[in-house]
Design goal:
Blueprint: E1 6-11, H1 27-33, H2 39-59, E2 64-69, E3 87-89, E4 107-113, E5 132-136, E6 139-140, H3 143-152, E7 158-164, H4 165-174, E8 179-188, E9 191-194, H5 197-214, E10 227-233, E11 246-249, E12 252-257, H6 260-269
Parallel strand pairs: 1-2, 1-4, 2-3, 4-7, 7-8
Antiparallel strand pairs: 5-6, 5-10, 8-9, 10-12, 11-12
Helix pairs in contact: 2-5
Length: 278
């Protein structure tokens, strides 16, 4: 069995223990959140869970950890608080979603994950943004599944998820055998029962080591091409669509590609010809 030496870590904010409201980086949310919490608190909580995952990976023998600061504008993790030895991909104007991904990685882990939009009782559930549903070849897919399919196309298995219990259950439907660390249980869109940060980090640190040991038993997540991605919104799509998009009805558009990487980047970045990484 091939040993796991290089790990790609996808991160998000809404699945972190202690986070149960939307990121107040936008003015409206910032005004609403004033006096309740500051964004810096959310950033510290996320960074703590990312560090715990990295510590567990290094303890399990992993030599390279690349962290994708994937929430929002890509500037949520606090770089100065990261443990030594990791690297972080962050920032705006991204050439693709999984910054720095390549076939050299042996496993994908996802930290701070939320469930897909419209999941009952899930905390802060959404898919790319609120009020949107994605389907790939007819199957509803959220952000975790999207990342897993992109990595899976490069032969990289999705071996670990931490986040809302509802997200952990969702991940199990995509990647049988995956190891999960539920650090909170959503009760509604803005409510959850949380582990304290110290307990959440201990759980992540422990479970991600188990995931490394099981990596060889978990198959990459793939969707057989050609791939059709449908994007359905609560608001009607504008009259002018992205080039190559097919309007299904007022609320739904469709993108078709020879594989998931192509269809996804057409739908989300307007880049249907983006080459697969080597």
């Amino acid at each position: 069995m091939k040993s796991v030496k290089s790990v790609y870590m996808m991160t998000d904010l809404e699945g972190v223990a202690g986070v149960d409201d939307w990121d107040p980086r936008h003015t409206d949310y910032a005004n609403e959140a004033k006096g309740v919490y500051e964004r810096s608190e959310m950033q510290r909580l996320l960074t703590g869970e990312v560090n715990a995952a990295a510590e567990g990976l290094f303890k399990a023998g992993v030599e390279e950890v690349l962290i994708n600061d994937a929430h929002g504008a890509g500037r949520t993790i606090l770089p100065e608080e990261l443990i030594p030895g990791v690297r972080i991909a962050r920032g705006r104007n991204r050439p693709n979603w999984l910054l720095g991904i390549s076939r050299r990685f042996d496993a994908l882990v996802q930290v701070g994950m939320h469930a897909m939009g419209y999941t009952p009782n899930a905390c802060l559930a959404h898919s790319m943004s609120r009020g949107i549903r994605y389907r790939a070849n007819g199957r509803e897919i959220g952000e975790m599944g999207m990342a897993a399919c992109l990595a899976g196309q490069l032969g990289i298995p999705w071996v670990f998820t931490s986040g809302d219990l509802h997200a952990c259950r969702e991940s199990e439907t995509w990647a049988p055998g995956i190891v999960t660390a539920p650090v909170k249980e959503g009760l509604s869109d803005l409510c959850a029962v949380h582990l304290p940060p110290a307990d959440a980090r201990n759980l992540i640190r422990e479970r991600v080591q188990e995931a490394v040991q099981k990596a060889g038993q978990i198959a990459p997540v793939t969707i057989q091409g050609p791939v059709v991605i449908e994007v359905q919104r609560e608001e009607p799509w504008p009259a002018k669509l992205r080039e190559g998009a097919e309007r299904i009805d007022a609320f739904t558009v469709r993108y078709t590609g020879k594989h998931f990487w192509q269809a996804f980047h057409h739908a989300t970045y307007g880049k249907p010809d983006l080459p697969l990484p080597e």
